[in-house]
């Protein structure tokens, strides 16, 4: 049996195979049928604008000889993309098999719907005579750039951004919950000034929130201005119309995008580079989070909740592997590699047009799909861990040397205030503590050996590793 002979076809990539259930929401926006459906929406809305005008032109037809469409006719046109399902996908494929051109196949698909309009509506309609209005004065990229922008906008706003926001919301809730839970820091992998678990999670909340704000504020640009952006065909056909104004009306008010007035044949894709760069940046922050949490689990700071019935290792039954975080890491990396390529290549085009962007943009769904898969894994991982307080407390209790920093800093302040015996504070503390395993008694003896004033001596003696966290708990709620 050849796998290629099996029907329905076996998916080549894990996005549409093994992980389809997790990435399926993006199919609604970034699949090939979704793109074709959006192309149909663009085409029929352009027809309606040309036939019925807009407020700025007194609601007069823009193209002479066309009668304003009735509400019923407009509804019929708008139903073409809305009813684009399995049968429509097959019919579009038949047109494309003949035309060898995806946008032309969309045009013919609409033409076919217009031919059947009178029969479906049950009475004569001018729609049967309006095939020449389909794709009027348009180049394929007029349709493609608007469709792609609307597809990406929908995918980001309705799927990716909500999934990323769930991560931030979860982290924010846990940051609040663990705001006061002291935690030994490791800088360069070595014990360092303690922090709190909540504050460390809040760092990621702050970092990610900035990127998600950028994504939420992203502009999605569009154009409809002809083969080289000059409105040449438009003015050749209808010289008295204000085509730039019509273009702006269509892009902004009918398509819900930001109008780009200056383009070649293609919309320049700069907004895409901006968006994919920001999503990749957010990916990398969450990749950093995955690595940190993985190491916290390895260190015992976080404990994992085993999934009942799941196998951690094929040979070591005791193991609960942090696979969700590892899967998230890998998928964030794959997503970033594609997003980086999209960002770098889409902003370039040879003179007024080349076709490299067309095939490249078909991978937007894959790029966001890997990110979405990673987000799902990361959230699942975060929801399956909890702090191991015993390990956290043991780490703090076994590393009293981290109090060398506050002691030597207090010595500096006392030296500046004129107290004797406070010279060379860093060196004195270093001699006691560097590379040493010391405890409470060692610290208290060292403090007592110095001529601190009573208030400073009392404050330092009361310090413990668990209590030396500054205002970490307050910082968790900073700017929130």
UniProtKB/TrEMBL annotation:
Associated pathway: Purine metabolism; AMP biosynthesis via de novo pathway; AMP from IMP: step 2/2; Purine metabolism; IMP biosynthesis via de novo pathway; 5-amino-1-(5-phospho-D-ribosyl)imidazole-4-carboxamide from 5-amino-1-(5-phospho-D-ribosyl)imidazole-4-carboxylate: step 2/2
Presence of the UniProt keyword Lyase in the record: yes
Listed EC numbers: 4.3.2.2
SUPFAM superfamilies, per the entry: L-aspartase-like (SSF48557)
Residues of the Fumarate lyase N-terminal domain: 17-328
Keyword presence, Ligase: no
Gene Ontology MF: a single term: N6-(1,2-dicarboxyethyl)AMP AMP-lyase (fumarate-forming) activity
Entries under InterPro entries matching the protein: Fumarase/histidase_N, Fumarate_lyase_CS, Fumarate_lyase_fam, Fumarate_lyase_N, L-Aspartase-like, PurB_bact, PurB_C
Enzyme kind, highest EC tier: lyase
Gene3D superfamilies: Fumarase/aspartase (C-terminal domain), Fumarase/aspartase (Central domain), Fumarase/aspartase (N-terminal domain)
Residues of the Adenylosuccinate lyase PurB C-terminal domain: 349-469
Record keywords: Lyase, Purine biosynthesis
GO BP annotations listed: IMP biosynthetic process
One Pfam family in the UniProt entry: Lyase_1
Protein task: Catalyzes two reactions in de novo purine nucleotide biosynthesis. Catalyzes the breakdown of 5-aminoimidazole- (N-succinylocarboxamide) ribotide (SAICAR or 2-[5-amino-1-(5-phospho-beta-D-ribosyl)imidazole-4-carboxamido]succinate) to 5-aminoimidazole-4-carboxamide ribotide (AICAR or 5-amino-1-(5-phospho-beta-D-ribosyl)imidazole-4-carboxamide) and fumarate, and of adenylosuccinate (ADS or N(6)-(1,2-dicarboxyethyl)-AMP) to adenosine monophosphate (AMP) and fumarate.
Name by which UniProt lists this protein: Adenylosuccinate lyase
Lineage of the species this protein comes from: Bacteria, Bacillati, Actinomycetota, Actinomycetes, Bifidobacteriales
């Amino acid at each position: 049996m050849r796998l290629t002979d099996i029907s329905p076809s076996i998916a080549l990539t894990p996005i549409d195979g093994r992980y389809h259930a997790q990435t399926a929401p993006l199919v609604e926006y970034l699949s090939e049928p979704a793109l074709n459906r959006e192309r149909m929406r663009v085409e029929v809305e352009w027809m309606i604008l040309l036939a019925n005008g807009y407020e700025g032109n007194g609601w007069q037809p823009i193209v002479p000889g066309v009668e304003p469409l009735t509400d019923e006719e407009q509804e019929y046109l708008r139903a073409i993309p809305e009813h684009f399902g399995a049968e429509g996908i097959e019919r579009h494929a038949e047109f494309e098999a003949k035309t060898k051109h995806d946008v032309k196949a969309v045009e013919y698909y609409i033409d076919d719907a217009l031919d059947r309009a009178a029969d479906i509506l049950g009475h004569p309609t001018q729609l049967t005579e309006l095939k020449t209005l389909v794709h009027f004065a348009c180049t394929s990229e007029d349709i493609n750039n608007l469709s792609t922008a609307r597809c990406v906008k929908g995918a980001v706003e309705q799927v990716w951004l909500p999934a990323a926001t769930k991560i931030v919301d979860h982290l924010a809730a846990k940051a609040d919950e663990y705001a006061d839970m002291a935690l030994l820091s490791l800088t360069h992998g070595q014990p360092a000034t303690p922090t709190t678990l909540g504050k460390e999670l809040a760092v990621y909340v702050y970092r990610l929130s900035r990127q998600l704000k950028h994504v939420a504020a992203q502009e999605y640009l569009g154009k409809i201005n002809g083969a080289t952006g000059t409105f040449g065909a438009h003015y050749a056909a209808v010289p008295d119309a204000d085509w730039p104004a019509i273009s702006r009306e269509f892009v902004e008010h009918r398509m819900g995008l930001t109008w780009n007035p200056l383009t070649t044949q293609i919309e320049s894709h700069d907004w895409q580079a901006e968006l994919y760069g920001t999503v990749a940046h957010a990916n990398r922050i969450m990749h950093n989070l995955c690595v940190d949490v993985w190491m916290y689990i390895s260190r015992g700071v976080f404990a994992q909740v085993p999934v009942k019935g799941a196998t951690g290792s094929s040979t070591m039954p005791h193991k609960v592997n942090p696979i969700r975080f590892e899967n998230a890491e890998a998928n964030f990396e794959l997503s970033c590699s594609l997003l980086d390529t999209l960002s770098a290549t889409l902003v370039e085009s040879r003179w007024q047009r080349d076709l490299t962007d067309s095939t490249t943009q078909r991978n937007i769904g894959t790029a966001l799909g890997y990110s979405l898969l990673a987000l799902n894994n990361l959230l699942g991982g975060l929801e399956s861990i909890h702090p191991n307080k015993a390990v956290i407390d043991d780490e703090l209790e076994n590393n009293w040397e981290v109090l060398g920093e506050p002691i030597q800093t207090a010595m500096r302040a006392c030296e500046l205030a004129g107290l004797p015996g406070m010279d060379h504070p860093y060196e004195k503390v270093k001699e006691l503590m560097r590379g040493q395993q010391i405890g409470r008694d060692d610290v208290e003896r060292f403090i007592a050996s110095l001529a601190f004033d009573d208030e400073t001596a009392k404050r330092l003696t009361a310090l413990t590793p668990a209590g030396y966290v500054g205002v970490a708990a307050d910082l968790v709620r900073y700017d929130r």
